[in-house]
Specification:
The protein is mainly alpha-helical. The protein is about 60% helix and about 0% strand.
Length: about 240
């Protein structure tokens, strides 16, 4: 039996909202933002990607505003972080893990909803990626952080592209079901966590340019150019 988005349990989407919301509250705790700001940041990251998706699809009011159940994951995430954060030592690791969970779920649900709305697979993949990374981008910009999406020392969007692409291929082939959905989520989650732990990097926008090291030295030697952390010369 193939998988249809409209028959998917709502809790799957809510679980993605919760994972992202926890990452927002953890970031708020790390930056010593008060609990109201924590709730707002959790809501922004948890609901932002889905709101962007629904507005683009133009299928009616965004699900976050049409279903009161979507308000509970940010509330729950804010409360859990408020009471558990003092005993959490490795909150950065937890932030990445919860963010990876939200990324894995949202790249699938965004792609599926786009396909169910009649979009072609290529456009559905792009919307799936936008759904997955949109909330994190809003979270980081609002918290005055360098967005992970634009971090040259990390990989953020590629796992979402992989998950959205796999979802679209499986959908078109008629073999997207609960089992394959779990497999796609596992691939995206593992890809994202491994990229973070092993500091995988994507190629720079211009071939042959060097990255600047932590203390200003480039990968190819000391010194560097004036342009925002990259050496101002080609190989």
């Amino acid at each position: 039996m193939t998988f249809a988005f409209e028959n998917a349990p709502v809790w799957l989407d809510l679980l993605g909202v919760f994972f992202f919301a926890v990452s927002g509250s953890l970031l708020a705790a790390r930056k010593q933002i008060d609990i109201v700001g924590s709730l707002l940041l959790a809501s922004l990251v948890g609901l932002g990607g889905g709101v962007i998706r629904d507005l683009i699809l133009n299928t009616g009011p965004p699900a976050a505003f049409g279903n009161p159940a979507y308000l509970f994951p940010p509330l729950l995430a804010t409360g859990l972080v408020y009471f558990l954060f003092p005993s959490v030592q490795r909150y950065t690791s937890l932030l990445v893990l919860f963010d990876a969970g939200g990324l894995a779920l949202f790249c699938m649900t965004g792609t599926l909803k786009a396909l169910a709305a009649g979009m072609n697979p290529w456009a559905a993949v792009m919307l799936g990626v936008m759904t997955a990374v949109g909330g994190g981008l809003l979270r980081d910009v609002t918290a005055n952080e360098v967005p992970e999406l634009f971090n040259p020392k990390d990989i953020y969007a590629l796992p979402a592209f992989a998950g959205a692409g796999l979802t679209a291929v499986l959908w078109v082939a008629g073999v997207f079901n609960v089992l394959t959905a779990v497999g796609v989520a596992a691939v995206v989650f593992t890809f994202r966590v491994l990229a973070w732990r092993r500091s995988w990097q994507a190629p720079l926008a211009v071939h042959g340019w060097h990255r600047r090291g932590v203390f200003g030295a480039t990968d190819g030697g000391s010194g560097g150019g004036p342009d925002g952390g990259f050496e101002g010369r080609r190989d």
